[in-house]
Amino acid sequence: QVQLVESGGGSVQAGGSLRLSCEASGDTYTSNCMAWFRQVPGKEREGVAAIYVAGGNAFYTDPVKGRFTISEDNDKATVYLQMNGLKPEDTAIYYCAAKGYGCHDFRVASYSDWGQGTQVTVSS
Fold first, then answer.
1. Whole-number pLDDT of residue 38
2. What is the pLDDT of residues 67-117, one digit of tens each?
3. What whole-number distance in Å separates Cα of residue 116 and Cα of residue 124?
4. Phi and psi of 80, rounded to 5°?
């Protein structure tokens, strides 16, 4: 099992930036793919970005392409999400997730491990 702890959420104005971090511990050798999802109350959880921790190939969903960048530091077992050009519609709880393979697949059910989430609020 993998434990995931997110940090870095907060409140910013539209156009601002935030950097989220997700530190993994436990059986991290099973987590070849790590990702960020987000969820607004009353709506389904949606994928944001994913990355293979060995090799660094990254995948993004359309709403964040060109604005968000996912990266990883394998030595620190940490994945980051740099969010630039934030919009009010980016407001959500952001979750870190991990699984063994299939980073291109953003189905929530395909991920086995989840963090507790960190709140991101973007004001207009």
1. 98
2. 999 999 988 899 999 999 999 999 999 999 999 999 999 999 999 999 999
3. 26
4. -120, 155
pLDDT for residue 56: 78
Which residues share a beta bridge with 20? 81
Q: Measure the CA–CA gap between 38 and 122, rounded to whole angstroms.
A: 14
CB atoms within 10 A of CB 30: 14
Residue 7 has pLDDT above 80, yes or no: yes
